[in-house]
């Protein structure tokens, strides 16, 4: 089976969409399939093309057997609705044009958000006369409405029509949560063509390490109880909650908060740290994936936070799975399906989103009970190994993709 995968993000970018796409495609290649990924020059989240790359019209490379085609886009930082929209539309146009010059595949899979990336799959499928599988990692435009990024009602209605058009015309839809599937069925979409494949984790890469390492010494965290947040610093995450909690427990000098990542809100958060005089908050820019295991190792607690919103009750942040795999107890400021998953895993505490006092209380409780930390961590690792192994999930997705092109005589049998 030859899969043409359209993804706005791909390594060396380290965000969740890039990781999910790469790990699935890598496994498919190992299982004997041919995979071509159409993406852009790596630039997320700062809107600066990574060293060693150029924003060219068309560039080929190979990564772990995956054929990677990088196309030109309007490059901008991950902030500002208009500029980001231009970035998304330029990728859609470039990906569609590039696909015309690529060998015919058996199926095209496009991933959303952003939704123009997802919609590119429709045009490619019609031009190349192949089935279209649409992966939904966030509901869109609902996710940008939840953070107040757009308010124009005419624009909102237009985007909602585009959303419904994509759901209706995709041959198969693959959302990452059960809540997303219920939402789509509520929009009148046939549930038979929807298969939920949740996020997971590469269990070989995410293995627990001893916390005494060079990075801990370098950051002056060897004797600290480290409470970590790794990931995007965006509007959806309301990371102000961490700083307010840090202020609450600043008298406990053994506890240090560690934030690693970048995003539209990072500068605002740096200013907030200075304004509050928080010596117990360390902030690092986005780090290469090769360094992340050591940062996980020195952490005692993992924070997973989002704004308080009904929409976010439908999501499961990918950081949950990495935290579980690294045996880190989770303090989860997300309601709904994520909270159910954490409760089932018995791997941490659920707190009210945006509630700094609740967060501070739970941090102190785990600081004073290391045995409970260990129990939560061990339970989480066992749970993710049983239910969220990326290899198993990649093969499940391959079966869905294969079923979409079952009528195509060129399609090969999926290797299980």
Explain what this protein looks like in three dimensions.
- It is a single chain.
- The chain has 416 residues and is of the alpha/beta class.
- It has two domains: 2-200 and 389-404, Glycogen Phosphorylase B (Rossmann fold, 3-Layer(aba) Sandwich), CATH 3.40.50.2000; 214-387, Glycogen Phosphorylase B (Rossmann fold).
- The protein contains 15 helices and 13 strands.
- The chain has helices spanning 16-30, 81-100, 115-128, 142-146, 153-169, 178-186, 214-218, 240-248, 266-276, 289-297, 319-325, 337-345, 356-367, 370-387, 390-404, and strands at residues 2-6, 34-40, 58-63, 66-71, 107-112, 132-136, 172-175, 225-230, 255-260, 281-284, 301-305, 330-333, 348-350.
- Strands 3-4-2-1-5-6-7 form a seven-stranded mixed beta sheet, sandwiched between helices. Strands 10-9-8-11-12-13 form a six-stranded parallel beta sheet, with helices on both faces.
- Helix 12 (337-345) links the parallel strand 12 (330-333) and strand 13 (348-350).
- It is globular, with a radius of gyration of 21 Å.
- 49% of the residues are buried.
- Residues 409-416 have low confidence and may be disordered.
């Amino acid at each position: 089976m030859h899969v043409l995968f359209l993804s706005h993000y791909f390594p060396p970018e380290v965000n969740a969409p890039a990781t999910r796409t790469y790990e699935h495609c890598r496994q498919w290649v190992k299982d004997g399939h041919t995979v071509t990924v159409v993406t852009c020059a790596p630039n997320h989240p700062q809107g600066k093309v990574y060293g060693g790359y150029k924003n060219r019209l068309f560039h080929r490379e190979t990564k772990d057997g995956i054929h990677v085609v990088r196309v030109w886009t309007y490059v901008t930082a991950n902030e500002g609705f208009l500029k980001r929209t231009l970035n998304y539309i330029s990728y859609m146009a470039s990906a569609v044009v590039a696909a015309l010059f690529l060998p015919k595949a058996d199926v095209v899979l496009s991933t959303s958000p952003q939704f123009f990336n997802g919609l590119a799959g429709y045009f490619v499928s019609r031009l190349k006369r192949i089935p279209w599988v649409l992966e939904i990692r966030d509901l869109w435009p609902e996710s940008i409405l939840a953070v107040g990024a757009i308010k124009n009602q005419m624009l909102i209605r237009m985007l909602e029509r585009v959303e419904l058009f994509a759901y209706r015309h995709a041959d198969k839809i693959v959302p990452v949560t059960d809540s997303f599937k219920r939402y789509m069925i509520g929009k009148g979409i046939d549930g038979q063509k929807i298969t939920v494949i949740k996020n997971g984790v590469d269990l070989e890469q995410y293995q627990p390490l001893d916390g005494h390492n060079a990075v801990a010494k370098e950051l002056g965290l060897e004797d600290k109880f480290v409470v970590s947040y790794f990931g995007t610093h965006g509007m959806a995450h309301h990371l102000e909650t961490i700083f307010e909690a840090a202020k609450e427990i600043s008298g406990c000098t053994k506890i240090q908060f560690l934030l690693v990542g970048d995003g539209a809100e990072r500068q605002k958060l740096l200013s907030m740290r200075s304004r509050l005089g928080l010596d117990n908050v360390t902030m690092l820019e986005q780090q290469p994936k090769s360094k992340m295991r050591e940062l996980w190792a020195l952490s005692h607690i993992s924070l997973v936070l989002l704004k308080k919103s009904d929409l976010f009750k439908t999501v499961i942040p990918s950081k949950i799975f990495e935290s579980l795999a690294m045996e880190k107890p989770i303090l989860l400021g997300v309601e709904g399906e994520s909270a159910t998953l954490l409760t089932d895993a018995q791997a941490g505490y659920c707190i009210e989103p945006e509630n700094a006092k609740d967060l501070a209380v739970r941090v102190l409780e785990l600081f004073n009970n290391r045995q409970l930390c260990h129990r939560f961590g061990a339970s989480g690792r066992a749970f993710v190994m049983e239910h969220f192994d990326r290899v198993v999930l990649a093969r499940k997705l391959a079966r869905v993709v294969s079923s979409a092109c079952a009528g195509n005589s060129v399609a090969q049998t999926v290797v299980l």
